[in-house]
Amino acid sequence: MVKPTPADLFVDMGDGINYETQVRSLAGYITPNNRFFVRNHGATPVIDASEWRLVIDGTGVERPMELGYEYLRSMPQTSVTRVIECAGNGRKHFAEAHGRAAEGSQWGSGAIGAAEWSGVRLSDVLELAGVTGGARDVMPEGLDEPRMQRPIPLAKALRDDTILALDMNGEALPPDHGYPARMVVPGWLGTASIKWVGRLQVSEEQLWSHWNTQDYVLIGPDYAPEGEAQGRVITTMPPVSIVELNRPARLAPGHHVIGGRAYAGESRVSRVEYRVDDGVWREAALCEPNIAGSWVRWQFPWEAQTGQHIIRVRATDESGNNQPDSVPWNDLGCLYNAVVPHPVQVG
């Protein structure tokens, strides 16, 4: 870790390299760099941009090549505001719902953040190398210790908002967030947005790696294996909502405006509903902006009465997918997006 991770902004996941954002510290639409969660699989590498090279090779390109940092800076730049969410966000709720903890760091709701990412469209980078007519997959590889790599289909790689990011919120990528270059693959699990990218392998064959066969797949009785994977390969993220209160929370009696955020992977959130105790589901107000691939802020007024209460919130996307009441077990504890009861003590 390079950046400070004070306890009022972050929850230490216990390994010294992973920190979730304290959701109560979120303010504004964009998550500042100093509050953005950190999910790494090893120590943050120290990379000299003047010596760094991006290798583009594989059976799916006509002209294998290497590009330098300044060359990428000289290419046409683009910016997108998008959310990145770890597939393990909410993992600790499996223990609450199923009576046993899933494997991995016990993330709460803070392994998620929205940033303005700026850099080069991946399609422009691939065009330089000449993608073949038979190209199928693109697999970015990181320069971190485990050499993180996870393939994406060529169609996703060529989307206008899939970028090789050089900047985060108007400044060069911080070391913990992928300097000098990282992938931003909107709507997909965070692991697809490989940090510290050093290679783009383009293949005419379907590609597999540890991180889409043994890790970041849904393994359990409800999920059949796919190809070389031990379960269902995770791609897009499902609808999820976050309440911007401590859990459990304490509030004084009286009028409050309860707020939070909702995210729906590649889609846009169409509706957020809330329920207090055993009351009816009501619709919360959505605040602009509401960007597909990013999140939307929501809020509702509450006249809080003294006592113990439960707040529940659920999001629905434009296709009608919403948060379920329960999520089937999976061994790695990924994609927990069930409605989570949020206890609030008033008075």
SSE layout:
Layout (H helix, E strand, L loop, with lengths): L9 E3 L6 E3 L31 E5 L7 E4 H6 L3 E8 L6 H7 L13 E10 H8 L7 E6 L9 E2 H4 L5 E6 L2 E2 L9 E3 L12 E7 L13 E2 L13 E2 L6 E4 L5 E3 L2 E10 L5 E8 L5 E2 L1 E3 L7 E10 L2 E11 L24 E5 L1
Parallel strand pairs: 3-12, 16-23
Antiparallel strand pairs: 1-2, 3-4, 5-6, 6-9, 7-8, 7-12, 9-10, 9-11, 13-14, 15-17, 17-21, 18-19, 18-22, 20-21, 22-23
Please supply descriptive tags for the structure shown above.
347 residues; mainly beta; 5-stranded antiparallel β-sheet; 23 strands
Please count the helical segments.
Answer: 4
Instruction: Name the poorly predicted regions.
Output: none
Shape, per Cα inertia axes: globular
Care to count the β-strands? 23
For the largest sheet, list the strands in their spatial order: 4-3-12-7-8
Question: Strand content of the residues, in percent?
Answer: 25-35%
Q: Average pLDDT across residues? A: 98
Helices and strands, in N-to-C order? EEEEHEHEHEEHEEEEEEEEEEEEEEE
Largest sheet: 5 strands, mixed
Class derived from helix and strand content: mainly beta
Helix content: under 10%
Distance between the termini: 39 Å
- Rg from C-alpha positions? 20 Å
